[in-house]
Every structure is written in structure tokens, then in C-alpha cells.
Amino acid sequence: MAKRNSSPDSTYDVVLIGGGIMSVTLGALIRKLQPSWKIRLYEGLSDVALESSNPWNNAGTGHAALCELNYTPEMPNGTINVAKAININEQFQLSRELWDHLISAGDMPQEGAFLSPTPHMTFVWGADNVDYLRRRYEALSVHPHFEGLEFSEDPEQIAQWAPLLTLERYGDQPLAATRTTAGTDINFGRLTSNLADYLRESGVDIKLQHRVTNLKQQHDGSWKVSVRNNEWNAVERRHTVNARFVFVGAGGGALPLLQKSGIPEIKGYGGFPISGLFLRTTNPEIVAQHNAKVYGKASVGSPPMSVPHLDTRVVDGEASLLFGPYAGFSTKFLKSGSLLDLFTSIRPGNILTMLSVAKDNWDLTAYLIREVTTSKEGKFRSLREFMPTANPKDWEFITAGQRVQVMKTKPGARGGVLEFGTELVSSADGTIAGLLGASPGASTAVAAMVKLLEKCFPEQYEQWEPQLVDMMPSLRGAYSPPQREEDDDLPKVLVEF
Description:
One of its GO terms (molecular function) is L-malate dehydrogenase (quinone) activity. By secondary structure, this protein is α+β, with helices and mostly antiparallel strands. The protein contains 13 helices and 20 strands.
């Protein structure tokens, strides 16, 4: 076995695992709050933002609940519950404030490098859906966060907003749409790279093609981090470093590493991997006719993950349109992962949870089977429901990133539950934490990492809070902390691509 090298100089205050939006966001916050701390980031691939943060592995929606119907469920009494929509919107505004602060300080380029103002719309058809959308608009539009939201049932008005939705749509079927110009399209890959550049320039040691293979806590509470160097010309293939705090922000790779850490808090957690496809067109004549992210409503009986949306995408200055997502299944936990990932994640502590979730979610299994077995022609028909003039020759299928949904022990009961959001898992002593789950993910990364700071660094947080408020004024009383998923009985989004 190759010797693992470790020296006194290889002790870090913080080790970040994974080169995605979560790790670089946490790194940026800590660098601002504690500029003297020694930080290292490990990424197993050849660059940052090559997995879920890559622009073609997600839809790039700046999720602010402006158009997503999942966040505004209809309650049994007929009212529209907007609590989660307001919460998600507040979390996204927190992200905008941090980005603006970093830009103003000269730490990142102007937001045009990664963010494009793009209207957000919701589009539905059928009398019941039109009625629901009208009531949703009435409930949201009175809130200051949703000022400027417009509603219309006029096909001519909708055609002005997004011509491709109504062109050659015949018949007298009721239509309705909402629209706001406050929406955004975000290149999370570019944003992640910008934040990584800031970290490098501020002294953070970023190691690419270095994969963390094991985590072991020492007697003093610090962590021994075992790393494999996969660079082709590496002199030493394996080494270890010590870390006073470890953040596992490795996307689908977070669960296996947290399991290896042995912290009792990860017992009972499992992962359910889901892949996805998009249809994409770069035909300039088609792209020029659509400037919006338009979300619809999932078909009756379909899970929230099937919500269709026709999106403007701007990646490095080039515009295209995406439609989807179409769900798929792979046992990989990462796009670059192994087909054995799901099986090797099964442990004595989570097998009952996973079996219970499988038993209680046959509808999801049936949906995934239908999605995987649907022909390309069948998939294309769902695009034509949105865009009647769509022609297959103009569109291509692209593979989205892998997502791993959280399965965990059901609180206060036997069995397990499939979680539909992100889940922060941390040790009791606050020396290690990881983020599991998928949605709304990147858009609310700042809120998630502020929550982590408060939970894992309670003594320092009181000192940090004035500086955090200076960077993000919404933290001054107006911001509502993210809801605990287990306390939230509202329907949740299964996964966002």
C-alpha cells in the first residue's frame, strides 16, 4: 500500500469537499468572515462545476417561486398556500445580496457574466387550471416580494409575452398565464467558477483531480482526510490532511462520504438516484421567438418532478431553448460516478429505511418506468403541448445531471420517508457537515450555508452576524430561516434539474 504523507503543514481550519456551488459559496462566506483561516478545497474532476452546477446539467432557473406551482399548493378548503413560495423567494434574495456584495467589492465580475434577466411565466390550460392560476395570482400579487406579477387569460396578450405558446394553438380551450420581468436565468457553472477564482485569489488552496476517499475523526475532534491524487503526473498518489472542520458538498457523492465518517447522525439516511433529459434547440429563428422561463403544471397523477417547462437558456452569451425535464434512472450517484453507487450505499443502518420508502412509493417507481420506456416520439408530444409548432428536426436530447433524493428514518415512527428538498446533516460537535438532496439547490445555496454557519459555529456566529448582515441586509430580521422539511406539511418539489 502506498504511504500516506502527512505533515504539520497539512492541518487546515476548513476542508471543503466538492467543487460545486455549495462548497464555493461556503468558502466565500468563511473567507470573508475569517480571512486568516487556512482553507483547502478538493474536487475529484478536472475543474469545478462539472457535475450538477454545470450549466447543461440544470435548467438554470433562479428559483424564486415566481413561476413554480409546486410552491403554491391548493389546500383542502380551496385557498392557495403561499408560505413556501415566500420562503423560497426570501432565500433567493439572500443569494442575490451576497453576489451583489462580492461584485461591489471587486471579488467577482459583473453579474452579466453569469446572470441574465429573463421573465418567469406560468402557463396552463383547461378551466380548472385557469381558475387555480387566477387564485394563485391573487394570493401572491398582494405580497411585496411578488410585486409586478401579471395575470392574463387573453390569448393575444399571452402571445405577446411568449409567441411559441399560442402559435397554431387552435380551439376555444381556456388559457391563462402569469408573468413577471423580475425572473432570472443563471449560469451556475460560471457563477461557481467565479467564486472559485475569488477563493484562489484570496489564498484558498484548490486541488483538482483529487478525490477524498475516507474521513476519520481524531481524538482531538479534528478530522483525518484521506485523499487520492488522480493527476497523471502525480508524485504521491495518496496523502492525508487534518481539518478542524469538514464540509461535504459533493452532491451525490456526499452520502457515501458521510457514511464513511461514521457520525451517528447519518445513520438511517439513504439515497434514491434520478437522472434526467432535456430537449434543446439552438435554432436562432426559434430562440428569437421565446424570451422566458415558462413553467406548466404536472399532469394528473404525475409527481412534481414532471413539471414541464420551456426555458430560455443563456450560457456564455449563447442563447438556446430547453424543454423538459424527462426523468430517467441510473444507479450512479454522480454523472461521473459508478453504477455500483446505489448498492454500495446500502448499510445495515439504512436498509429498512430504503425498503420502507420503496414500498410506499410504487407510484414513483411506476412513473420512472413509464418515463424510461416512453419513445422519443412520445416525449416530443409533451413539447408540442407547450409549443404546437415544434419540429423534431430542430431539437436534440441532452442528458442532465444526476440527482440523489434523500431517504431517511421517519421521525417518531418505524420505516422511512422520501424527502423532497435539501437536508443539512451535521455532527453533534459541529466539526463536520454535509448537504444532501437536490431542490431548490443552487438558487438557495447562500441560505443553506448561512444556516450551516449558525449550526456548526454557534460561538463565532454571534460575532459574525453583524458582518453577515452588512453583506446581506435581508438577514436583519426580515429573512425567514429555511423551514425544517419534517415540520412542513406542504407538497414539495421532488427534484429540479
